[in-house]
Specification:
alpha/beta; 4 helices; four-stranded parallel β-sheet; 144 residues
């Protein structure tokens, strides 16, 4: 068995980089256990990570404690295998020579059904977590 030549990489993006993209990144780090290089960024980064997002993601063993909001780095965007945009508000334009593909996850938005607070955030987390696990299986399918 030969070692994989490269570790698959993913960049999760949302507008503020304070909630959904950070949750997705934390969940992927927890689920992938080093098998995937994980990044997150925002199209218009906010000033802080959403505390409730961090709290509910910790309930399932993922950690956002060290997360900081960051803008998209064009060189990172060009080299990652997959860019995942969370929600329809954020728009990521391809850059020249881009290696990967851009996918948009239209995530569950419980507030549209009147669900708020921690209950809302857990539903968002569970939707993102399911998608992260599917993406992890896809990204690591060639490695075994």
């Amino acid at each position: 068995m030969s070692a994989p030549s490269t570790t698959p990489s993913v960049l999760f993006v949302c507008v503020k980089n304070g909630g959904k993209s950070q949750m997705a990144a934390a969940l992927m780090v927890a689920r992938a256990a080093g098998a995937v290089e994980v990044h997150s960024a925002g199209t218009k980064p906010g000033t802080a990570v959403n505390a409730l997002s961090a709290e509910v993601v910790a309930e399932v063993g993922a950690d956002m404690a060290a997360a900081v909001t960051t803008p998209i780095d064009p060189s990172l965007l060009a080299r990652v295998d997959r860019v995942v945009v969370l929600g329809e508000e954020a728009v990521v334009e391809p850059v020249p020579g881009m290696a990967g593909t851009i996918d948009t996850w239209v995530t569950d938005e419980p507030s549209e059904r009147g669900i708020e607070g921690a209950e809302r955030m857990r539903l968002v987390r569970d939707d993102i977590d399911r998608r992260v696990q599917e993406l992890l299986a896809e990204l690591t399918a060639d490695e075994g």
